[in-house]
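Below is a filled-in request sheet from our internal design queue. Each sheet records the structural input a requester submitted and the sequence that came back. We keep these sheets so that new team members can see what a complete request looks like end to end.

REQUESTER: design group, bay 2
PRIORITY: normal
MODE: inverse folding
CHAIN LENGTH: 205
BACKBONE (tokenized):
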């Protein structure tokens, strides 16, 4: 799609579907408004939209919703679908109750400013993965940047119960949801990781 000069999109009231990769690569796109009758949004619909600041969903839509940061969810906010690439904040707290994060929510966007993601215990799966989960390293907050951190609400063992957790490419901080802490150097050898004062040290997974 030739959309280099499009800065905003508001879907027509009678539109029901936004196709796969419909606006992929629209580098000037800053805002998207999803109308009330849209019932299907294809994967990567807003991937690689460098300037995208927010996705806003009509409150009468029965299938999708958005939060005050312009992040796209399903209606009941149990599934996180898309984080806007142009958002300038470096930290985002996923609200408790989110169970499912699409792998394309961050990896197809690689938001350049986002380095700190807070993840609740309610998350159970990284979805939309079509290849074996042992091919890791594609769930990047900011691709190629070594300073990406996930602050998880539970223990490291609980984190490893998340289906497809191998796809994370970040330092995991167990038991630190809602906190951003100065992080010690992560040992190259996992055997060097030890608990300190009863808490678990951060670990690269």
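RETURNED SEQUENCE:
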């Amino acid at each position: 799609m030739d959309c280099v000069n499009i800065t905003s999109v508001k879907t027509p009231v009678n539109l029901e579907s936004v196709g796969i990769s419909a606006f992929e690569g629209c580098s000037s796109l800053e805002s998207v408004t999803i109308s009330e009758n849209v019932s299907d949004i294809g994967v990567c619909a807003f991937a690689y939209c460098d300037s995208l600041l927010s996705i806003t969903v009509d409150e009468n839509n029965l299938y999708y919703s958005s939060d005050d940061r312009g992040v796209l969810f399903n209606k009941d906010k149990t599934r996180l679908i898309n984080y806007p690439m142009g958002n300038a904040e470096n930290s985002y707290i996923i609200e408790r109750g989110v169970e499912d994060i699409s792998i394309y929510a961050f990896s197809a966007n690689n938001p350049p400013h986002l380095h700190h993601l807070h993840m609740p215990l309610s998350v159970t799966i990284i979805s939309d993965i079509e290849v074996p989960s042992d091919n890791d390293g594609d769930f990047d907050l900011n691709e190629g940047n070594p300073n990406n951190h996930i602050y998880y609400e539970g223990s490291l063992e609980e984190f490893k119960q998340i289906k497809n957790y191998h796809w994370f490419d970040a330092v995991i901080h167990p038991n630190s949801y809602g906190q951003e802490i100065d992080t010690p150097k992560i040992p190259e050898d996992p055997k060097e990781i030890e608990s300190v004062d009863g808490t678990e040290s951060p670990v690269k997974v």
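SHEET NOTES:
- The helical segments are 156-159.
- Confidence is low (pLDDT under 50) at residues 132-137, 183-198.
FILED BY: M.R.
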